[in-house]
Amino acid sequence: MKLIKNKITPVFFLFFFYTTNVMAYVDGIAAKVNSDIITMSEVEDELNTYKKRSGITSLNAEKEKELRTQIIERIINVLLIKDEAVKKNIEVSEQEINEAIRNVKDKNNLSEDVFRKMLEGQGIKEDEYREKIKDQLLSSRIVSQEINSKIVISDKESKDYYEKHKEEFKSPKEIEVEHILLLLSPEASENEVESVRKRMVDIQNKIKSGKSFEKLAATYSDDPSKGESGSIGYIKRGATVPQFEEVAFKLKVGEVSDIVRTNFGLHLIKVVNEKPRKQLSFEDAKADVNELLFKEKFNALYDEWVKNIRKDSFIEIS
Known about the structure:
This protein is of the alpha+beta class.
């Protein structure tokens, strides 16, 4: 249940994949894609999920319309890519799905109970999660086959890019963070929220009275980091969920935050150290340079690939 993105993406930051709903005939139809349909309710479900994960409580009509359009377009592409995977006879076995889920749990030190609670907190049923993992594996395989395998980046290309954009390659600001987490579902009732908040306020008061943050984290936190006295180590911007990061990077060394709510629950955050930014040598920056070049080439090839697939497909948006 660590907060660091690159270690928990499969659990907390899933792509939004789509599964055809048999209730489409009694639901509004947002779009038709070959033999599949996208229902209005599924678009709304994804929009609501996006709002919850982003901590958005309200949107104006124009922004909401724009997001719905983006969601529909993304679902269309997902369906088309899945169809393409079927055409290429790409398959994913139950064993591979089980292994992917087991890897998620192992990498994040999640017990079965905590794993189920995290799914529940995101409003995802286990069979739906398995379907999402399957879709992700299918898409990953065909994208790797059709795009990734065609991307080549030479050392000269990397070096030239680095020299032209040298100022961009500095070590990012890093802060060493400890936190206390009390689990709370995004769907929790007001009474449940108030109950957990009272517990956190009690912990907060103990800290203000001079009690050790680390000892309190080890005693009360629901996060596996309690075994490390609440420490999640050094983090960079973009490595944690937005609500957590926004507060953490404003804290001074030694400062403890007020109560912060994320999709995981309620947090108290403490910054214990900070690393200054430094200019990176080419060798140190090479991996980042190659990643940027890879993304540029990938996006161009992906857009062209999807465009060609769409040309040969039936798509009707309501």
